[in-house]
Amino acid sequence: MDRPARLVPLHYVAIGGRGPEDVVAAPDGGVLTGVEDGRILRLDGLGDPDTARVRELARTGGRPLGLELLPDGDLLVCDAERGLLRVGLADGAVRVLADSAEGEPLRFASNVVALSDGTVYFTASSRRFPLDHWIGDIVEHSATGRLLRLAPGASTPEVVCDGLQFANGLAVSGDGTFLIVAETGAYRLTRFWLTGPRAGRAEFFAELPGMPDNMWRDGELTWVALAGPRNAPLDLFHRTPPAVRRAAARAAVHAPYRPAGTLAVVALDDHGRVAHHLARHHCGFRMATSVCVSGRHLVLGSVREPGVAVCAAPAAT
């Protein structure tokens, strides 16, 4: 991959809550996010930090992560504690759509997309580690992430792809023929075919220069937040026996974690070709877990920060 262009931060907006893990842009220019105390927030006026506004829309009662705004104005929420939720933004009502799969509780629902026919696909990052011990899954490298499908009107999701390395962000291709799935623990994106002769199959889509997290579809491009850069010692460690990795994972979940100071995002087309690779080193805003395009800006969220970063969007290529 070519040397990255410079990511240009414009300003930071505190939102009165910690950990806006996913950010999604509404058609009217607002940005929606969820924070660690369970609130769903709407952010307006992010172009000017002095006049930006934050409004609470709902409370999930858990820990909201990935979001998907529906055409009727409701919001799908992957909640790390409660499962897949549907939230009414007009009245704040919360309904559980799925909280188990294959007879076990959904430990770590991560991100979600909805198709035009009402089918919902969502990821579960790990069957072994909850959100607050996510680093254990990355270290153990045991590939228990899953992609699940919830058919219209169904109450139980179907696992359509498993063995993923920390399944995370999701996006739909421009023509709707496949999904793009982020495998954070493998530095790659995976394509899952929805239609055609390969429907139901997963295959390699793109390798990335860091750990992919949430994604955002903007026109012909899919934007991907990179939560951290590649880690050569970790790559070597992943070649050790499973028992060694399991022991290290048990230790890792109790050790302090300091994210790298590199902030990075990429944008790819539906052939897996990189259109933009933007990065900034030695950045105070750490661990970007999401990115969306809002007007002339890139808005970045983070599972750790108490606010969002607003950056300049690159010129179209």
What does this structure look like?
There is one protein chain. With 317 residues, the chain is mostly beta strands. It has one domain (5-312): Neuraminidase, CATH 2.120.10.30. The protein has three helices and 27 strands. It has helices at residues 134-140, 232-237, 242-252; strands at 5-6, 9-14, 23-25, 31-34, 39-44, 53-59, 64-69, 75-79, 83-87, 94-98, 100-101, 104-105, 109-114, 120-124, 145-150, 158-164, 167-172, 178-183, 188-193, 202-207, 210-218, 221-229, 263-268, 274-280, 288-294, 297-302, 307-312. Strands 1-24-23-22-21 form a five-stranded mixed beta sheet, with no helix packed on it. Strand 26 and strand 27 form a beta hairpin. Helix 1 runs antiparallel to helix 3.
The CATH architecture term is 6 Propeller
According to CATH, what is the class? Answer: Mainly Beta
Mean pLDDT: 95
Give me the CATH fold name: Neuraminidase
By DSSP (H or I, 4+ residues per run), the number of helices equals: 3
Number of domains: 1
Largest β-sheet summary: 5 strands, mixed
CATH superfamily: TolB, C-terminal domain
How far the N terminus sits from the C terminus, by CA atoms, comes to 17 Å
Q: Strand fraction band?
A: over 45%
Q: Which strand order do you get reading across the main beta sheet?
A: 1-24-23-22-21
Tell the overall outline. globular
